[in-house]
From TrEMBL:
The keyword Transcription regulation does not apply. Catalyzes the interconversion of methylthioribose-1-phosphate (MTR-1-P) into methylthioribulose-1-phosphate (MTRu-1-P). The lineage of its organism: Bacteria, Pseudomonadati, Atribacterota, Atribacteria, Atribacterales. This is Methylthioribose-1-phosphate isomerase. GO terms for molecular function: S-methyl-5-thioribose-1-phosphate isomerase activity. The gene is mtnA. HAMAP family: Salvage_MtnA. Belongs to the EIF-2B alpha/beta/delta subunits family. MtnA subfamily. Pathway: Amino-acid biosynthesis; L-methionine biosynthesis via salvage pathway; L-methionine from S-methyl-5-thio-alpha-D-ribose 1-phosphate: step 1/6.
Amino acid sequence: MKPVEWIGNALRYLDQTLLPTQEVFRETTDFREVAEAIKSLRIRGAPLIGISAAYGLCLGALEGTTRQNDFYPFLERVDSILRSTRPTAVNLFWALDRMKKIWQEAQKNATLPEETCSRLIEEATTIEREDEAMNRKIAELGASLIQDGDVILTHCNAGALACGAWGTALGAIYWAQLKEGKKIQVYADETRPLLQGARLTAYELTRNGIPTRVICDNMAAFMMQQGKINKIIVGADRIATNGDTANKIGTYSLAVLARYHNIPFYVAAPTSTIDFEIVEGSQIPIEERNAAEIKYWKEHQIVPEKAEVENPAFDITPNTLITAIITEQGILYPPFQEKILSIRRKIER
Ligand SMILES: CSC[C@H]1O[C@H](OP(=O)(O)O)[C@H](O)[C@@H]1O
């Protein structure tokens, strides 16, 4: 089950806001619907946001072929609408930059719109295939850090529902148990306010036969104090070149707790999640989402009208609290800066 799939000039996607009780696939030829799906987390997860935005750009290009006179100016508008969906996951901008390189080159050469569409679809497909390969490598390398009998705490969802294939944090768990036969128990933080852990991670892991216990976010410290957790693996939405990492809100508190309880704290992410243009986490934009996500759960109002709400969707974990960063280029241990810059040199060669 792929969370998004290009089905020949249309995108099929799983509406993740309806999981775990409803598996609803939607199909669209409209890039505007893809933008809305990313904004509303029907499609979510840093790598999947990048892949989906790339296909969304392709849908815009196909629509643009009916506007022969302003095909390329229209693409510019499609690009900016997709870029405006969510600010933190760098994969969105990394993917759209790759697509922009293709259509700007085509524009310079006065390439016909139909030919440009073909090249864009080819690039989006390549982005998806590369993510699948990166996932697989991260899963294999991450599994080498997992021992038989480990009890691993996860946060939010960094699994196959957030990526092109295996997932990142959950990919390591899948590989360790399903490929290497290691017995693992997972504790999944429910991850308020949108409950990606309870609704998505537990859904994925139990479908794959991995023993999973869902806990409220405020229970993680007690589980660590009781000695129930011996490893923490999370995903990422943007990593600075010094290793500071943006991930779902609540990740930073887990990293502090992990240090206090002397528990290894791993980040798993592809290099497409590294922002080579920034040096530290304070430069990462943090998405502030709608207060309604906290004020209401479905039709229940759980916060009185007069109370104000803050709803940052991500936080920044300093590199000093991270045991290692698992990438497809290798497992990086502190100090991260030079290792991340050497990855930049390697992939930009
Ligand atoms: C494999 S990256 C997944 C990453 O994205 C999630 O955020 P969201 O559900 O808001 O897209 C979360 O931060 C995960 O770690």
